[in-house]
Amino acid sequence: MGKEYEQDLLKKTQIILTDMMRQFDKICRDNDIDYFVAYGTAIGAIRHKGFIPWDDDIDVGMMRTEYEKLKKVFETQDTGNLYLSSADSDDEWHDKFFPKLNYRGTVYISDNWHDSFEKDGEKDGRPINFDIFLYDYADEDHLKIAKKTMDLKRNYMYTKFKAKLIKGKGMSAFVSSLAKRLMYDIHASDPDYPKKQFAKYLKLIEHPKSDYIICYDTWSEFDVTSSFIRYDESFPTKSVQFEGIDVKIQKDHAKTLTAQYGDYMTLPPVDQRVAHPPYNVSFGDYKFPDKA
User: Which of 213, 223, 215 is nearest to 40 (CA)?
Assistant: First the structure.
């Protein structure tokens, strides 16, 4: 079991994320943009018709071409407190290759982030957000490409953020943190270096339209390879309920979820129900319902 999560804090986080999901779904439907809930959000929709009870995030997936349409909507329409960030945007706190949907005026610093990186002004001002994992076309070379993407992902993160030197957790942890710190120090003189890594990544995963799709964006090689699926097994998407919202899910969600989690319909043992309470959180001026 992870650190205890204050139930009021967890509930309020879920309320904001549900609001974000409702707005995101409407934006996508109004603009003919296809997407699907993914990972724990997909399990929650199928198994609980909402959040996994101890979960505090939302994950969605879409084709990269659909995301380009979504970006144009956010550039040309009023999207209220919602905004997008990505690896090639100017949001200094953005930490992964995949884009995020953010709620303006909030702050959400994960405990893991606080433990791993030094606070650095705007880089520490990340808002409440959810992840948008982008899928690209692929073929039998996807395993080779997946391996190559790992270094680029690490280069992006560890040359953008200064790692803390980890002491008291063994020599291996210290050496790893020192290597990450040195990477940052070496490339700190070139503020565009992380964006250059992302540009290389986009070039590497470029692929013409094919029968298969994959999400290279995710952090682990297993998550990448387990996302590999036929396009016609993922689309057309179908409807499922999530916290009272009619959202979209992959056509053969069972195939993907089984590859990722095995028996995803069975609740894990209590000691494996991992929660990730934040180090610091602010809900800004968000108006919660009276019974939140």
Answer: 223
User: Is residue 113 assigned to a domain?
Assistant: yes
| Residue 189 forms part of a structural domain | no
Buried b or exposed e, range 76-110, using 16+ CB within 10 angstroms? eeebebbbbbbbeeebbbbbbbbbbbbbeebbbbb
Distance CA 60, CA 38 (A): 5
Structure tokens that stand for 239 in this block: 């409807």
The pLDDT averaged over each successive group of 10 residues in the chain (292 residues) is: 76 97 98 98 98 96 98 97 96 95 95 88 85 96 95 96 92 95 95 97 97 95 96 98 98 97 95 86 93 64
CATH of the domain at 227: 3.30.460
Whole domain around residue 46: which residue ranges? 7-142+213-275
